[in-house]
Design goal:
Helices cover 82% and strands 0% of the residues. It is an all-alpha fold and 68 residues long.
């Protein structure tokens, strides 16, 4: 079973982009929009993680139930 590192790079990329957007918006005086952008970034990362966990649980289920 190979570990797919592309998911980690996607999450890191989203984090960097959201941090840049947050910093720019905060310096412009738009703190509410900056917080909203951070929340949207967090939700996107959460969806990616939940999708990965779903795949993991499907693999675990197939191993323990001996289904192919």
């Amino acid at each position: 079973m190979a570990i797919d590192a592309s998911i980690l790079f996607q999450i890191a990329g989203i984090g960097i982009i959201v941090a840049l957007i947050h910093t720019i918006l905060k310096q412009m005086g738009k703190e509410e929009i900056a917080q909203f952008a951070t929340l949207v970034g967090f939700i996107i990362v959460l969806v990616i993680v939940i999708d990965g966990l779903s795949d993991l649980f499907e693999q675990i289920k197939s191993v323990f139930l001996f289904q192919g």
